[in-house]
Design a protein that fits this description.
About 60% of the residues lie in helices and about 0% in strands. It is built from 6 helices and no strands. Helix 3 packs across helix 6.
């Protein structure tokens, strides 16, 4: 008997959609990943009362916040740690999908410190030279 789809299966299908309907080498692994997510959502719903749709929205929001932080870190690196001239605002704006003024205000001192720590370099010194294409 085929298992009836429920909200957990459907939320998992939305979060991990089929990349293509044809057989691919990783199709089974992809389906297994989606099935594990559905099972995780189901268990959280049954054991903790966590609504699977709201859990999916929270999960997507967390990924969005992480992506935004990565963009801030990369913009920070490009503007504060690359030399002798940093990347141009217009280049970064296009790449990040921001306005030039959005790039200008995209990061703060805390972001500079975080990037410096991530690359294990003091702030404002030892800038690698950006090579031209």
């Amino acid at each position: 008997m085929a298992r009836t789809r429920d909200i957990c299966d459907e939320v998992a299908a939305i979060l991990i959609p089929d990349r293509n309907k044809t057989d691919s080498p990783d199709a089974e692994e992809h389906k297994a990943h989606r099935d594990r997510l559905a099972q995780h959502l189901r268990l959280a719903w049954e054991e903790e009362g966590e609504d699977p749709l709201l859990a999916g929205v929270r999960s997507a929001r967390l990924r969005k916040l992480q992506a935004e932080q990565e963009i801030r870190n990369l913009i920070t690196y490009a503007r504060e740690f690359i030399g002798p001239k940093p990347y141009k605002l217009v280049e970064l704006a296009e790449a990040a999908g921001l306005s030039i003024s959005g790039v200008r205000i995209a990061y703060e001192q805390d972001d500079i410190a975080q990037v410096a720590e991530a690359i294990n370099r003091p702030i404002g010194i030892q800038r690698p030279v950006r090579t031209q294409k």
